[in-house]
Amino acid sequence: MQGQITLTLLELRFFAYHGLYVKEQQEGQYFLVDLWITYPELDKTVHQLDQTLDYTVVFGKLKEQMANPRHLLEDLAQSILSELKELFPPITEIRIHIQKESAPVSDLDGRLGVQLTRLY
């Protein structure tokens, strides 16, 4: 019976310049990113990295995307998921959660962000 494997990259912290407001674009802020990538389990035992998704490649792509400033987190999330699906066609589901650690909202005590899930 074939199952599904989910690769997780959780609580990744990036300093970046995403946001609509000039202050966000000039001063930047910290973002937290969680990423779940699901793909089919192989019929055989995985012994080699080339038989699975390499999380170092996934992290590298995520890091590149986070370094490219965007006005909206929705745009950023869409771009990340599109690039990862293109790189790894076997993906059956991918979900990302991006949060601003200090969103520019008066009296906010918490984090704001977006979550995007795609099923293939």
What does this structure look like?
With 120 residues, this protein is α+β, with helices and mostly antiparallel strands. It has a domain at 14-39 and 47-101: GTP Cyclohydrolase I, domain 2. 28% of the residues lie in helices and 34% in strands. The chain is built from three helices and four strands; from the N terminus they run E-H-E-H-H-E-E. The chain has helices at 22-27, 55-66, 73-87, and strands at 4-16, 29-40, 93-100, 112-119. The chain has a four-stranded antiparallel beta sheet, covered by helices on one side. Helix 2 packs antiparallel against helix 3. The two termini are 20 Å apart.
Oligomer: single chain
- Within the largest sheet, what's the order of strands? 1-2-3-4
What is the helical fraction, as a range of percent?
25-40%
Ranges where pLDDT stays below 50 over 5 or more residues in a row are none
Mind summarizing the main beta sheet?
A: 4 strands, antiparallel
Q: What is the count of DSSP helices, taking H or I runs of 4+ residues?
A: 3
For the termini, the CA-CA separation is: 20 Å
CATH fold assignment of the domain at 14-39 and 47-101 = GTP Cyclohydrolase I, domain 2
Q: Count of DSSP E strands? A: 4
Order of helices and strands: EHEHHEE
Name of the CATH architecture of the domain at 14-39 and 47-101 = 2-Layer Sandwich
Q: Output the structural class.
A: alpha+beta
Radius of gyration, rounded?
A: 16 Å
Strand content: 25-35%
* Text of the CATH class of the domain at 14-39 and 47-101: Alpha Beta
- The shape is elongated
